[in-house]
Structures are given as C-alpha cells and as structure tokens.
Design goal:
single chain; alpha+beta; 3 domains; 13 helices; 11 strands
Length: 417
Amino acid sequence: MTAEAPQRTSDEAVKEARRLSRKARRRKYLGWAGIYLILIVFAFAMVFPFVYMFFTSLKDSSDVFTYPPRVLPYEPRTIDVEGEQLPLFAIEDEGGETRSMVLVESGIKAGVFAREGDLENTIAVPLEFAVDTGRTITVEGEELGIYTVTFGGETEDLVLIRNTAVGLFVDPDDPEVVGYAVVRTAIPAEQITARWSNYDEVLGIRDFDKAITNTVLITVLVMGGSLFTSIMGGYAFARMRFPGRDQLFVTYLGSIMIPFVVLIIPLFQIVVALNWNNTLASLVWPFIYTAYGTFLMRQFFVSIPVDLEEAAFIDGASRWRILWTIFVPLSWPAIATLAVFMFLYAWNSFIWPLVVIDAGNTESFVLTLALSILGGQGADQPQLVFAGVAMAVIIPLVVFAMAQRYFVENVASSGIK
C-alpha cells in the first residue's frame, strides 16, 4: 500500500506535466496564429489598393462608375445576330431560371402584379396573360384590381399594382425559351474581361510614351552617375588621407540637412546661367552628386578589413584596381540599396521638373508631369488615369523586387560587427 502511493504520485506528476506541456503548445500555436492573422490583414490592406488600381485600369468607363464598386473588370456580353452585335441580358424565363437572352421586342403592355398578402414582391407580366376578375382590394386608400394571371405554366390570382411596358427576350440558344422584363431595369449579362487598349490609349495622350522614355533615360543617368560619384567619394573619404579630409566630409555630410526647397531658387539660377533650363540636362547633372550616397558608401568601405587593401598594395595593385576589383564586389548590398534609393528619387521627382520644364514642352516631359496632366484630361475616364499610374508603378516594383535580396542583406549586415 505504501509502495504504490509514490508510484501513483509519480504517474500523476507525469500526466500533469504532459497536460501543461500540451497547454503551452496550444497557447504558442494560438499566439503564432494570431500574429500571422494580423500580418495577413495588414498585408491585404497594403496590397489591395494596388490590386484595385490594376484591375480598374482594365475597365471601361461605364464599369468604373458601377455601384457598388467591383474589383474585377466586367463588360456586357453580346452576340452576333445576322451581322449585328446585340447585347445579352440576364432574364428569368417562364420557369424562373435565369438565362442570357436577347431583346427582340419592346413596348409590350404589361402590368406589375403581386400576391395579395405580399405586395412587396412583384412580377411584370404582359396583360395578354391576365384576365380581370372584377374584384378589387383597397390598399392605402387606393382600389387595386385582382387579375387571374397565367404565366410559366401556373395560374394565380394577383393584384395589379400599376401598368408598365416590358420587352420580349429570347434565348439565342433555344428560341422556344422566352422571358419578359422591363427593358429599362433589365440587368445586362456580363463577363470578366481586360481592356488592354486602355494602355495604348494612354500612350497616345500628349506624348505619354515620350515621357516614359525620358523618365527611363533620366533615371538611368542619375542612378549611374550618382553610383559612380558616391563610390569614388566614399572610397576617398574612407581610405585616402589628405589634409582636411574629416572636416570636408562633415561639411559635405551637413548638406543633407538643407531642405531641397531652399535650394530650388539658387539651383534654378545656375541652370538658367548654363542655359540648361527646359532641357533634360537640368534633370540629370544636379543630382549625380549625392551626399547621402557618399556617406553610405564611405561607411560600408570603412567596414572592409584594411588587410585586404594592404595585401593588394603588396601585390602591386593600384588604388583604382583595388577599388573596382576588391571594394566594389564586396559592396554589392550597399550599391544595390543606393541604386534603389536613387532610382525611386529620379523616377518620382516632380517639383524640380515642374520648375525647369515648361508645360508646353512635351518633348522634355517626364512621367510625373505627364501624369499630372493626364489627371486633368482623364477626369471623366478614371480607367485611363489608373492605366497611367499602373505604368508608373510597375517598373519601380520590378526594380525593387530584383534588388530586394541585396537590400535586405545590407540592412541585415549593418548590425553585424
């Protein structure tokens, strides 16, 4: 008896430990599920505007203003009848089944009928299928007639709410199947589609294609020039010794704190003095020198071991060769990060092009200026505006996706000593 007691106590302790372990695992899994659920909700909130923008760019103007709004693009379905494209409508046949039908006759005299105990649910039936019973009922002080209606193989006494006119619809696949509905409120049969022609139309609005070409050219030149000058300046400040190096670097770095709006007027005066205003040169040369890029590359070069450089010097390598064969290959994460930043800056630049490029000079337009004009011209056609925005957004997204690995690697390595 006394020997079994410790054994029973040990078994109970094991069971309790297992129960607590299962409870801890469930709590852990629920915690992770809650975290993932929150992340999914925020991710959906971030991605949905881009998805809606893209699908809206593929709609026509009538579909854009549909209420309630729809995400996917739809267009009315049509059918060729003797060389003529006729619209299809979603109509209930006499058996109550919804089919895609074609309007063959309109203006048929009909009545809106309802059951005596349910006046809210109505049906439009041609008067040729209704026979007056001579009886009436009073609804809110108004006498309404009761008719015997034979429709869809059923006969029923219904209350005539009001007179109207309907259209005769026929199923093109089975002409024996017909349906009646008020033409004005008939629901068109629709199908999911994509109007890629919206993009062609946008490219033809005020040289929009020329604006894209200019933007790509300017972005490549600014990005390439800033990378070159930042790599050269960063290496000079990191490895080369000359009088006043640190003071010059601090002064150069301090220019980052000056807002660009303060520099617009003096920069514009310099551009005018050089006769660069209203040209693409004014959008390139002022931005190929960047203090931020020099600082970023300098900080990355400082983290490279000096032993590599000294070994290269012993082997007879010049500074130029050391920079491009040792430092640059080791600095791809920083270079990719700077490239993404400069790409986005040049691609999305708006204030400076608005200042130096005349509104009438479409040959020198960039994408941001073209979009601002498209927003006014396409106010009644939002799908064209969204198509232009989609073209402006898709390229930066592709560039970021391609450089994401290096960008994340740079962020991760910045905390490693």
